[in-house]
Design goal:
about 290 residues; alpha/beta; D-Maltodextrin-Binding Protein, domain 2; 10 strands
Length: about 290
């Protein structure tokens, strides 16, 4: 079978292990897909830029981040859910910082990977849910987790939102201090693809999605999944056990219109998008 290249990107986190296992087992190749994986340490903000610049064909991104960026002009669409459970954001500071109480964070300095990233958007949504307003001057771009650790440690910033289990090893080592948590009110990860690849390679895109869904289905039934994650991502078995049993992956491509409407409501309430902005078609309806 002739293979068609599709360039897929995602963060270097345990959520994406089912895709790496599918690559290693030749499952994409067996469906005629040459999958080229790119790791984006900078998270959703970095990936939305890569989609806009045609550096990738598809990415696995935070739901709220890609929704906001499509509304702001990104010529991409959500083509499938990926992780259907919410994301638990850990709210972190440096162990050297005197900040201890989650309720005291809203006048502090925030480290964010990029404007428009999950670490940026969720800080605003969280503050808004507590009737607080954050100012743009409170945010400092630090690019990635390593940049955040350095910025927090130097006391240049006070607060950083990142996925709880990814940062837990740094909390355990006494590098970061977690002062709170925030759970997103929607499924956390979606797969989005550029309009270009949707138009030019729709059949191949569907074969890629089916391969991903098959792999996530097997991963959720894999007795060795917890030990695999622990070994590959350097996390304690007990932590992975809790994460794994609170996480569910999509095994089909359906995306809820109501869920997107709810995200748009929160993005507008937080002034991340304006109430006047026209909302384009966000989901690929096939």
């Amino acid at each position: 079978m002739k293979r068609t290249k599709i360039r897929l990107g995602g963060v270097p986190e345990h959520f994406n292990l089912p895709i790496h296992l599918a690559i290693e087992n030749g499952e994409f190749e067996s469906r005629g897909i040459e999958l080229e994986w790119t790791t984006f340490k900078g998270g959703t903000g970095q990936m939305t830029k890569a989609l806009r610049a045609d550096e990738v064909d598809a990415c696995i991104l935070l739901t709220e981040g890609i929704t906001a960026d499509i509304i702001n002009g990104n010529q991409s669409k959500i083509v499938s859910q990926y992780v259907t459970t919410p994301l638990t954001w850990g709210i972190h500071t440096s162990v050297k910082n005197r900040l201890e109480n989650y309720l005291n964070i809203y006048d502090k300095r925030y480290a964010i990977s990029r404007f428009g990233s999950g670490s940026h958007l969720m800080a605003i949504v969280d503050a808004n849910s507590h009737a607080k307003q954050l100012d743009k001057s409170q945010f400092k771009v630090i690019k990635n987790l390593e940049g955040a650790i350095e910025s927090l440690g130097n006391l240049e910033t006070d607060v950083f939102y990142w996925e709880k289990f990814t940062t837990k090893p740094f909390v355990d080592k006494g590098i970061l201090k977690r002062v709170g948590e925030y759970v997103t009110p929607w499924p956390c990860f979606m797969i989005a693809a550029t309009q270009k690849v949707i138009d030019e390679k729709p059949d191949e895109l569907i074969r890629m999605l089916r391969t991903i869904h098959d792999s996530t289905d097997r991963f959720m039934q894999n007795d060795n999944a917890i030990s695999l994650v622990s070994e590959r991502y350097g996390q304690k078995m007990a932590d992975v056990d809790r994460w794994y049993h609170s996480t569910e992956w999509a095994i089909h491509g359906w995306v809820s219109d109501k869920m997107i409407q709810s995200i748009i409501f929160h993005l507008r309430a937080a002034d991340i998008i304006s109430k006047e902005q026209k909302v384009p078609e966000i989901i690929w309806k096939r």
